[in-house]
Design brief:
single chain; alpha+beta; Alpha-Beta Plaits; 4-stranded mixed β-sheet; 2 helices; Asp23; Asp23/Gls24 family envelope stress response protein
Amino acid sequence: MSLKIQTPNGLISLSNEGIATVVGAAVTDNYGVVGMVSKNFLRDNIQDILKRENYARGVVITQEDDGIVVDVYILVSYGTKISVICQNIQEAVMYNVERLLGFEISYVNVHVQGVEVN
């Protein structure tokens, strides 16, 4: 599935894997984020932290009438404030997608799948 955007110059088609790479890079650069995990963490192994080539398994992108919604699944480190981490992720994803890909996101939903204790 891909995201299609109509511009005055023509139709732009972005694959979910391409968008997920931009989103995943924005997410993993935040303090307190151990990494991204699969959206099906019970079926998949929760200990598997996704690498750059698998970010699409931890990001869900849906196109709705009012815009684009991004769901991100993460693992955080123990002792960090989860609400601040989630807010930073939302701001970073919106900024990077708008700056790098040129379209706006309506919502960024952050799903914390677990806390890692070192």
